[in-house]
Amino acid sequence: MSEAVRTTCAYCGVGCGIRATVTDARAVRIEGDPEHPANHGRLCSKGTHLGETVGLERRLLHPMIGDRRASWDKALDLVARRFREAIAEHGPDSVAFYVSGQLLTEDYYVANKLMKGFIGSANIDTNSRLCMSSAVAGHMRAFGEDVVSGSYADLDAADLIVLVGSNTAWCHPVVYQRIMAARAERGTKLVVVDPRRTETAEEADLHLPLRPGSDVALFNGLLAHCRAEGLADAVNLDAPEGFWEALGDGHDLWTTAQTCDLAPADLQRFYQLFAAHPCTVTLFSQGINQSIRGTDQVNAILNLHLATGRIGTPGAAPFSITGQPNAMGGREVGGLASTLAAHRGFGDQDIAEVGRFWAAERMATKPGLKAVDLFRAVGEGRIKALWIMATNPAVSMPDAGRVREALAACPFVVVSDVVAETDTSVHAHVRLPAAAWGEKDGTVTNSERTISRQRAFLPLPGEAKPDWWIVTQVARRMGLRTAFAYDRPAEIWREHARLTAYRNQGARMLDLTARAAIGNEAYDVMAPFSWNPQPFADRRYPTDNGRARLVSVAQRPLDAPLRNWPMTLNTGRYRDQWHTMTRTGLSPKLARHREEPLVEIHPEDAAALGIVDGALARVTTPQGESLFRAAHHPGQRRGELFTPIHWTDQQARGGRTGVLARDLADPHSGQPGFKLSPARISPVVVDWRGFLIVHGDAPAPDCLWATRVTVPGGVLYELAGTGEPAALDRGLPRGERIEASDPARGTLRVGVLRDGLLAAVLFVTRHGELPSRDWLIGQLHQPQGPQVLAGRAPGRRSDRGPVLCACFDIGLHSIIAAIRDQQLQDVAAIGAALGAGTNCGSCRPALARILNDMAKEVAHG
Questions:
Q1: What's the confidence (pLDDT) of residue 533?
Q2: Are strands 640-644 and 677-684 parallel, antiparallel or unpaired?
Q3: Among 3, 102, 133, 601, whose Cα sits 20 to 30 Å from the Cα of 243?
């Protein structure tokens, strides 16, 4: 066994430190790093099970041209030649890069340098445009620079924490634990502003289920209240003419409550909590950013904190928390089409100075195409060559059906990825095998500006290479050898750090001068550090006059439901999945919490529309349609739907949320508005339901509904369809068949044995119940006979139920049985008995709800 390697988690922007210990060729033990400042040893369920995702299943291991394996030289020469030809014939703006917050800072830097400094176009954008670019635009309008003003330490010191558009318990569980610890230790108050009653809202002192899109009205109303109470002013702030006067009309309590569709008493309580607690942190995420008015919503929050002095002191800050592991690093090196490197913009002086530093041959002189416009340009034929790195836009972009059409029509598409086949890479002319987490080396920056090292602890498999190496090799083949003469990530880091310091003189807060000359060994052992632990403590801002700016923002009228589109679609993440599941989809434990893509709908809406809980439903928008499993959820507002973002053609016949969302974007940030798509929903009638469990891997059966779930030793498909299910037989592996059928009940049960070991089981029913999958999964590749068709062990009458605690693989029924049999009285007792809730803590609200529901049952006899 090797020594533990200290690295950083591959998932969200919390940036948790990890200790990874290799135990076998492709096996690793994962532990939280107790010395890392972001998590102090804590991990969420996804981080805990990273060890299940480092295998070579579905990996792209060799360069591919079309469907044929190629050498690196041949593939790289082709990429360089096709990009040179497009630039020569159509100009630099005819090519584009679309990159990712999954890249390391060093990868990001060389890609940005190549496109903006030497190709001469700013047509490089990142999937971070989809999750936090409204925060970037808001910061720049208010502060003069994209600086996140909060830190995790502020959560420890706050007296009030306001979570806006953030299901923190699921999306940032380690931050959520920190909030819960502050509540337990200091009595910190918690307000959750979210249209949905999520697990996060369950633990709040106050939940405000506001009307989607009314956030500007909410925060303008609160600022108007603070002004009336003498708690706000514009001293040492730049306020535009008429700023305060505009808050005088239509921002009283009653009007604000009506606009936001909130109870006036709840709104009054929010006002009172905010006024009474000067140490307030407002933590906001995708519910604010992913809107066609996202930048205004960000500035409404920033206005409130600036005008009430809740910034720059411990426990007081507006705090944007990012979704990806290196969204911040990308922002620092200019990964967005709207910025240059080192927090610079496209002013004449910035262009000249970056060009001089790079000795650039042809600097970009204007912002490039943002993500939505970029893929629109691809579809219109204006982009002739496109390079996509470490992301899956055919799934994640809004109006994803049109994105797929654009990719299919593009003359030349390159995809660098770790996965052999994604919904995007099927359109690639060239696929380049990139290094995955655990194999690559560089830095990432988390949500609070802490820079950490990601270190390799596994060898590069096959012919995979780091992204920085791939970009550098293409640049050299384009005749740019001197400018891209890097041999290791440390060299790129030093250049990036020097650029942050170049002709800075305090003009920009991002300044890595102290780390610009470190040697290779110092880079290898570099400990996590923040480049500005307490920004704005001196109330000085990186603007021309050193003062922050209040920005006039007004609540725009909200559209009434349309006759043909009476519902509003909201989208978001699940607790145990990540983006398009290319990594988390490999983990059997993470797969079981939400096995299928659900459309959540209020029970009263479902009853009116004839949508049965657990049945299939079709969600339709003007952009497209997809199938989902319906889930009645009283936490949904009436008239609203929620679907997850993760499922792709690789995992399911339905569940594709990306095809549903509009491609409308915020005019300032270019961030798409995923949260407010007009929609409708209708029931889908099926003739039969079933499941298929296969040892090893197997393609999805050909039927209406098939959802792939990774299980220990194999794969599970949840199935449903119309007509006769006879075609499902074709998806069974070869072997000795055992079969039982009941035509009267419409049931079919088939087992396949190979050398006496169970290779597959297929269970189908038209009207009856299906057995639990857990026991059958455990029988895969075990000696079996006809008894396996019973679907359960002899005498077994119960199962663990749906997985509630993914960290320890504990099901709902097991938890209920333990509460009843051991007379457990609180969440801590459940943790002591079973372990549930003692790791990432994201299941604790659900545990508390179970206890509460069981207590009510006892009280009512």
A1: 85
A2: unpaired
A3: 133
Please write down the HEC assignment for all residues of 644-673: ECCCCCCCECCCCHHHCCCCCECCCCCCEC
User: pLDDT band for position 861 (50/70/90)?
Assistant: low
Opening angle at CA 584, ends 695 and 70, nearest 5: 80
Q: Buried b vs exposed e over 264-288: b needs ≥16 C-beta within 10 Å?
A: eebbeebbebbbebbbbbbbbbbbb
Instruction: Quote the CA–CA distance of 293 and 298 in Å, as a whole number.
Output: 9
CA 76 to chain centre: 31
User: What is the pLDDT at residue 639?
Assistant: 96
The continuous run of DSSP H or E covering 163 comes out as strand 160-164
Asked if residues 37 and 450 have their Cβ atoms less than 8 Å apart, the reply is: yes
Give CA separation, 724 vs 15, 257, 691, 727, in Å: 50, 54, 15, 8
Whether the CB-CB separation of 460 and 435 falls below 8 Å is answered with yes
- 197-209: b (≥16 Cβ within 10 Å) or e: bbbbbbbbebbbb
Predicted pLDDT at 264: 98
Provide CB contacts within 8 A for 395, sequence distance 6+: 422, 423, 424, 580, 648, 656, 658
- State how beta strands 27-32 and 17-24 pair: antiparallel
What letter represents residue 17's amino acid? G
Task: Give 132-144 as a 3 state SS string.
Answer: CHHHHHHHHHHHC
Determine the Cα–Cα distance for residues 321 and 358; give it in Å rounded to an integer: 31
Bridge partners (DSSP) listed for residue 805: 810
The residues, ordered by sequence, that sit 6+ positions from 823 with a Cβ below 8 Å of its Cβ are none
729, pLDDT greater than 70: yes
| 618 close to 625: Cβ distance less than 8 angstroms | yes
pLDDT tier, 249 (very low <50, low <70, confident <90, very high otherwise): confident
Name the β-bridge partners of 720: 689, 705
Cα–Cα distance, 96 to 333 (Å, whole number): 17
SS3 356: helix
Q: 10 Å Cβ neighbour count for 541?
A: 26
Residue 825 predicted with pLDDT over 80: yes
How far is residue 763's CA from residue 748's CA, in Å, rounded to a whole number? 6
Taken in order 235, 238, 244, 247, the sign of the CA dihedral is negative
Rounded to 10 deg, the angle between the 348-358 and 489-501 helix axes is: 140
Buried b / exposed e over 125-139, threshold 16 CB at 10 Å, is bbbbbbbbbbbbbbb
Q: Which residues contact 499 (CB under 8 A, 6 or more apart)?
A: 341, 342, 354, 357
Q: What is the DSSP letter of 434?
A: B
Distance CA 548, CA 546 (A): 7
Residue 273 contacts residue 189 (beta carbons within 8 Å): yes
Judged by DSSP in three states, 182 sits in helix
Residue 728 has which token pair?
A: 């499902």
Contacts of 3 (CB under 8 A, 6+ apart): 21
Q: Which amino acid is at 279?
A: C
The DSSP annotation for 14-59 comes to T--EEEEEEEETTEEEEEE-TT-TTTTT---HHHHTGGGG-S-TTB
Encode burial over 143-165: b for 16+ CB neighbours within 10 A, e otherwise: bbbbbbbbbbbbbbbbbbbbbbb
